[in-house]
Specification:
320 residues; alpha+beta; 3 domains; 4-stranded antiparallel β-sheet; 21 strands; 43% strand
Length: 320
């Protein structure tokens, strides 16, 4: 009887132990403790700024937003090795973690002031955009018409980002750029950085001058009109009826860009419809471009007034 009891107990133990590994098994973490602790860090002043040492997982991406007066510059090292060259603010620095391990990122500031700063964002590997390393949208200075996707060596990416290029492929043609050769303007939407860039005085060779560069997140304040990057309050009582003319405070000489809030998207009240007006010497010369932007600054669509005719036509076809 005793032997039977021992045998029975042994069977129970073996059966239980067979399940222990399964119960103890855990899914590999998708985000490191280093990524969690680094994300959201903000350092300011004369520097240097040190992020780490911290343990990261392969594939994670650390992005530093570097700000301050353009008389200063930043140098970044990762584990003591130079990475990205000399960066002039405002700009960003990205480091893709090549393998699991400990990393220390140090940012030194030349000619720094109390106005310099570095803020960090860390993405888990499964949140990092999927495109080949070194893929960028190259935007030749003053010539957005010539923007095109190129692949460069990973060490060269930071230098390109420093002068206005964006990481990842360029968005598809008509979804990123509007040209009006008759008046020599180009409107360029950069989805990766959420900016509206307007170039004017374009010549036959496509060389242009930047007129304004406005962050999308600043445009979505419905109580103001954006005039060449400056903000003009909407007159009280005119919130729903704007004449979309050049505000009295705007200069009447040269090219002026005015961005108006029109109304909510008829199909989604969380999306606002905006119109970009171009004035030449005080005269409206183009109002073709419409932007559909969520209240958090996400660009849903950018198009022309033809969209209303297209939607009407689609509706008629559905009714048939």
């Amino acid at each position: 009887m005793r032997k039977l009891f021992v045998l029975f107990a042994l069977i129970i133990v073996l059966a239980f132990s067979a399940f222990v590994p399964m119960a103890a098994a855990q899914t590999a973490p998708t985000e490191s403790t280093g990524c969690t602790s680094t994300d959201g860090l903000f350092l300011s002043g004369l520097g240097p700024y040190t992020f780490g040492p911290s343990d990261f997982l392969a594939g994670e991406r650390i992005t530093l937003t570097l700000a301050g007066p353009d008389t200063s510059s930043f140098t970044v090292t990762v584990n003591g090795a130079a990475n990205g060259g000399t960066l002039v603010p405002p700009t960003s620095f990205e480091f893709n973690v090549p393998s699991d391990g400990s990393y220390t990122i140090v940012v030194t500031v030349t000619n720094g002031t109390s106005g310099n700063s570095a803020s960090a964002e860390c993405l888990a590997a499964d949140e990092v955009p999927t495109f080949a390393p070194g893929t960028i949208c190259h935007i030749p200075p003053g010539n957005p018409n010539a923007a095109h996707t190129i692949t460069v060596g990973v060490p060269a990416v930071q230098a390109h980002l420093g002068h206005g290029d964006t990481e990842g492929p360029c968005p598809d043609g008509v979804d990123t750029r509007y040209d009006n050769p008759e008046i020599g303007i180009t409107i360029f939407i950069i989805f990766a950085t959420g900016e509206i860039q307007v170039y004017g005085n374009c010549d036959d060779e496509g060389d242009c001058e930047e007129v304004t560069n406005v962050p999308i997140t600043l445009v979505i304040d419905f109580t103001v009109i954006v005039v060449d990057g400056s903000f003009v309050p909407v007159e009280e009582g005119d919130e729903d009826e704007n004449d979309y003319e050049l505000p009295d405070s705007a200069p009447e000489d040269g090219l002026t860009v005015v961005i108006f809030y029109l109304h909510p998207d008829p199909n989604d009240s969380s999306v606002g419809v905006f119109q970009i007006n171009i004035f030449q010497d005080g005269v409206l010369v183009d109002d073709s471009v419409l932007l559909f932007i969520m209240t958090d600054g996400t660009i849903i669509l950018w198009t022309s007034h033809n969209i209303w005719d297209e939607q009407l036509q689609e509706s008629l076809e559905e009714d048939d």
